[in-house]
Design goal:
about 300 residues, alpha/beta, 2 domains, three-stranded parallel sheet, 12 helices
């Protein structure tokens, strides 16, 4: 990687994402809530990075109920995409409005350098996919949403993922019917949200055999947590872990802050912290230092 961006162009990363969706092994995309986390995901050996709408909202101290804007999501996505050579898939909720808004969303996210985006069939404003009380738009409305997104795509390799929340609202049968319609409308990947069991995932794969499928392994939701290899055996092509890194980080942050407030020192946490030297490796401190020294050629006249 270069210091200020990536070695891989947006086009190259889009091609990589598209190819990975049609090849083994399964494509694993942990969620990144910051550029530094995205870089850690790359160094850990994963194949892609996911930017969750719920995480962008939570990092702004907002609930996941459609309060974030396209500007906020695109800005975070751009920051994350420049920090990793991996393809970045972004959760674009419902496209931030009507079909024309979905079209603009695709244009903005292409400009941000990401490899693809996800659009869902919930009513706008949406709700967390693993909570009750969701509503979905009609299949026809979602087909228009997808069609607008596809028509706005300038790079044909930009991946458009269609998520359906219908399984938890109208049943898996309806979600399967929608998946076929969404694929026909031009979606490159289908994401059935909030399936409950391995049997549900198997049923969906069997009924929708001809398009890549993405699974969501989020914690504390309605879905049984399956390993990436189990999902691969079922026939899924990609798996996201959207909120995992944020939950790990915030769990430790809250615990450490309570202990610091109680004891007056962080000394007991030193062996659980990322060391300064490791942070410097991730941010490539030494490379910047060398770069700066090589640039500093001015010498005052004597």
């Amino acid at each position: 990687m270069t210091m200020f961006s990536t070695d891989a162009t947006p086009s190259e990363r889009r091609k990589a994402l598209r190819a990975a969706l049609h090849a083994a092994p399964i494509l694993r995309l942990p969620g990144a809530f910051s550029p530094l986390v995205a870089r850690s995901i790359q160094e850990a050996g994963f194949e892609g990075v996911y930017v969750s709408g719920a995480v962008v909202a939570a990092d702004l101290a907002l609930p996941d109920i459609g309060l974030t804007t396209l500007t906020e999501v695109a800005a975070r996505a751009r920051q994350i995409a420049r920090a990793t050579d991996l393809p970045v898939l972004v959760d674009a909720d419902t496209g931030f409005g009507e079909p024309m808004n979905a079209a603009r969303t695709v244009s903005e996210l292409e400009d941000a350098g990401v490899a693809g985006c996800q659009l869902e069939d919930q009513v706008n404003p949406k709700r967390c996919g693993h909570l009750d009380g969701k509503e979905v738009v009609s299949t026809e409305q979602m087909v228009r949403r997808i069609g607008a997104a596809v028509s706005a795509r300038r790079d044909p390799d930009f991946v458009i993922c269609a998520r359906t929340d219908a399984a938890g609202v109208e049943g898996i049968g309806d979600a399967i019917d929608r998946a076929h319609e969404y694929a026909a409308a031009g979606a490159d990947v289908i994401f059935p949200e909030a399936l409950h069991t391995r049997e549900d995932f198997e049923r969906f794969r069997h009924a929708v055999p001809d398009i890549p499928l993405l699974a969501n392994m989020t914690e504390f939701g309605k879905t049984e947590l399956l390993s990436a290899w189990e999902l691969q055996d079922i026939g899924y092509n990609a798996v996201i872990y959207p909120v995992t890194t944020l939950r790990i980080a915030m769990g430790h942050v809250e615990q450490a802050l309570w202990e610091l407030a109680d004891s007056g020192t962080q000394a007991g946490w030193l062996d659980r912290m990322q060391h300064r030297s490791r942070l410097y490796e991730l941010v490539r401190y030494e490379e910047f230092n060398v770069f700066d020294q090589n640039l500093f050629t001015y010498r005052p006249k004597t």
